[in-house]
Amino acid sequence: MRAAFASRFDDADPLAALTVGERPEPTHPADDWVTVQLRATSLNHHDLWSLRGVGLTEAQLPMILGCDAVGVDPEGNQVVVYPVVVTRGDPRGVSILSEHFPGTLAERVAVPRSNLVPLPDGMAATDAACLPTAWLTAWRMLTTKGRVEDADSVLVQGAGGGVATAAVALAVAMGKRVYATSRDAIKRERITALGATAVEPGARLPERVDVVIETVGAATFEHSMKSAAPMARIVVSGATAGHEPSVNLRRIFAMQLEILGTSMGTPGELYELLAFCADSDVRPVVDSVVPFSRVEDAFARLHSGDAFGKVVVDHTA
Ligand SMILES: NC(=O)c1ccc[n+]([C@@H]2O[C@H](COP(=O)([O-])OP(=O)(O)OC[C@H]3O[C@@H](n4cnc5c(N)ncnc54)[C@H](OP(=O)(O)O)[C@@H]3O)[C@@H](O)[C@H]2O)c1
């Protein structure tokens, strides 16, 4: 079957490590696994990390990329794939598709049957394909970790990103005052259209916020700390621009800040997110939909840093 996979690692030029070609059909590591025929996937920064060699070893190559998926199960049902799989030998106890098990940028993927969630009526496959990774991460950052129900205001760093646009759209839909930083004036305009107050990175906010959504890392972390109100939660799920910021411990204890790490979400949280989107007008912010035949263009778009929202791959086009 056709697939997009990491054939080697290239830290400086991850796109050069991407290969599109034939891979063997999925196999089932256990009896409860099924094969899903894919309809749509979306890219994540995770796919670029994999091409750089972050989280994979040479022994795992070639590895089919892709964490997100919407497809058709063996009984013909449209399903959203929850991408976290119990993985013996991984220190986390789990892994995300494309880490230990082949990912979703292919014609078909194998997953445990319990990872399949019904696609809500009326939701497009290309929208739902944005939800299982970036949107699920943003949902958990806001709800379970950030306890946003007790918050009036939220700051989202690096607002053009997949997780970040999700956090803005969700927090606005929850009725919060949302501030978002972006280095790019056009992205700031677009984030304003989503209902946030957009500012340049590092700019002083009109108020200190109760929840900070951090996926950028070293480039923005000091601003996140300075923008946090007493008792605020700074929730971290990524470090695109460096993972070793300096942290002012005095500010943490004096302001009683919480710095919380999180990764992905639970199946229950994915159900909650799908229900929230299905019951409201909230839909993923989609930068572009690219046919699988041009999957390299989709990677180039993500890598350019120009994308606003999710880059989706349509496997049916
Ligand atoms: N832990 C998890 O479960 C999980 C799940 C999903 C994602 N992640 C992580 O979260 C991060 C974001 O993922 P994504 O898929 O949303 O990525 P993405 O769509 O590629 O977004 C990255 C965003 O980061 C900002 N950025 C990049 N370099 C920057 C710099 N030097 N200074 C300031 N801002 C910078 C940019 O915002 P502007 O251009 O608007 O400034 C960009 O839009 C990644 O590190 C990813 O690995 C983790």
UniProtKB/TrEMBL annotation:
Classification via InterPro entries: ADH-like_N, ER, GroES-like_sf, NAD(P)-bd_dom_sf, Zinc_ADH-like
Record domain Enoyl reductase (ER): where: 13-313
Residues that span the membrane, as ranges: none
Pfam families attached to this UniProt entry: ADH_N, ADH_zinc_N_2
GO molecular function: oxidoreductase activity
Protein name: NADPH:quinone reductase
Organism: Micromonospora coriariae
